[in-house]
Each structure stands twice: as C-alpha cells, then as structure tokens.
Amino acid sequence: MIETECLLYIDESYYDSPLATRFYTMTGALIDFCQRGPYSEMMNKLESLARTQPIDRHGYRGLHAIEMAYDPARHPDLESAQRIIAECDAVNLVVTVRTYSPPVRSSEDARQICLTDLVTRFQADGPLAGITLDTRDNLGTTAKSAKAEPGSKNHRDLHTLQDLKTAGELDMDTKIYHARDEAVRQLWIPDVVGYVVARSIARHDPSYMEILAGKVEICEAIRLPPSMRENGRSSLQPSGLVHRGGGQ
C-alpha cells in the first residue's frame, strides 16, 4: 500500500499547424493533500472564478483555458486562474513536450512519450497514490472511470501506464483514472497551465509565461514507453524545441 497523499492530475495540449513545428504537451499537476490549507484556498478561489463563467454546451460552468483565451472579455479570468495556481505551494507543475516529426511520426506516439516522461519524472520523486487523466473518450453517464474500451484512446493511456508498472517504473499500487473535469475539478489546473505553455512555445513568445514563470518546469520528453523500446533503446534524442533549463 502506498502511504502518500500525492495525487497527479494530467491534461494535454498540442499544436498541429502544417506551417510550423507540430508538438504535443502533457501537463502534470501534482497536489500534496498533506498541505490542506494552501490546497483548499486554491480550489476555493478557482471554484469561485468558475462560477462567474458562462454555461458551456454541456450545461456546466468551468475553467477551460481555450474558451477563455478566445473570448477577449474573459482574458482577465485566464490571468486570474494562472495567478491563483502560481501562488499555491501545494501544487507542483511539470510540462513535457515532444515534436511529432521523424522518428516520432504521429501525435498519438508523441502523447504516449510525453505521458511516459511526465509520469516517470514524478515517480522518481516518490510514489504516487493516484493518477487522473482528462478523458479523451465519451464516458457516458460515468464521470470518472478506471476502465476503458479496448482500442479506445483512453485504453492506450492505460496500456502505457500498465506497461510502466510492469517495468517497475511506476508503483503497482498507483490507481489510474480518466475523468471529466466537471467531476474532478483539479483537472482545471493542468488545462490552464498546459494551454499557456503551449501558446508560449507555438508563438515563441515568453510573455505568455510571465505569471507562471518559476512555477512550471518545462521539459523535453525523451523517455519512450516500453511498447516503443527496441534493442535496449529507452529514450530519444532531444529535438531542440525546449532548451535545457525548461524554457522555450
């Protein structure tokens, strides 16, 4: 049994323009629930901000960075969400980035590389009680699930994480879920952070990172998932998209 109160929440972002370098990112927000005071203060502020947002097509008020970014009237709300996250000591943020050009030929491969690199970075600092990923599939009436249909997008994530467990690179007792953010509101955090980091990289504009600078570690994803390893090769060469030290 894992004796920890650290839970990891993961969401993705990507840039898929034929006119520029295509890349995928995975953002991990590790929350230490032992720091209940700072954590509760952060979530109370985020939930208060969410209550001011328009109702989306699912009848839900939430913090979705891309929607706030495309509505100029909501830009101050996106900045507020960043400040709330940046001020919380109970959350640790890492973003892994991978281009998908040869030898990484698809966004799905880039995703699994980013996921592998992200999870193993956090695991290296200590065991994880649980991992919750933003769902890529319709969960039907279930807002949070530890299962996925074979062949589904969620199933690919679970397959990668199970392979990491088998390889001894992720604790066997770590619980894994996919969820919608209306059920697991902590997913707002990697959504906001991941969007800002991806925009900063895509536009070569560090000003996007002014609020979160120093709070987020940005790393090039080079560690391959077990299913992609061959002849003892477990990692890729950096592509140069992310400079050493975490900047772009």
Annotation keywords:
6 helices, 19% strand, alpha/beta, single chain, disordered C terminus, 7-stranded mixed sheet, 248 residues, Nucleotidyltransferase, domain 5, 7 strands
The number of distinct helices, counting runs of at least 4 residues, comes to 6
CATH topology label:
Nucleotidyltransferase, domain 5
Residue share in helices?
A: 25-40%
Strand percentage: 15-25%
| Oligomer description | single chain
Q: Would you state the CATH class?
A: Alpha Beta
Outline of the structure:
With 248 residues, this protein is α/β, with parallel strands linked by helices.
Structure, described:
By secondary structure, the chain is α/β, with parallel strands linked by helices. It has a single domain (6-228), classed as Nucleotidyltransferase, domain 5. 32% of the residues lie in helices and 19% in strands. It has 6 helices and 7 strands; from the N terminus they run ββαααβαββαβαβ. It has helices at residues 36-50, 65-69, 75-86, 107-124, 153-166, 188-202; strands spanning 6-15, 23-32, 91-99, 130-134, 144-145, 175-179, 216-220. Strands 5-6-4-1-2-3-7 form a 7-stranded mixed beta sheet. The protein is globular and about 55 Å long.
Layout of helices and strands:
Blueprint: E1 6-15, E2 23-32, H1 36-50, H2 65-69, H3 75-86, E3 91-99, H4 107-124, E4 130-134, E5 144-145, H5 153-166, E6 175-179, H6 188-202, E7 216-220
Parallel strand pairs: 1-4, 3-7, 4-6
Antiparallel strand pairs: 1-2, 2-3, 5-6
Helix pairs in contact: 1-3, 4-5
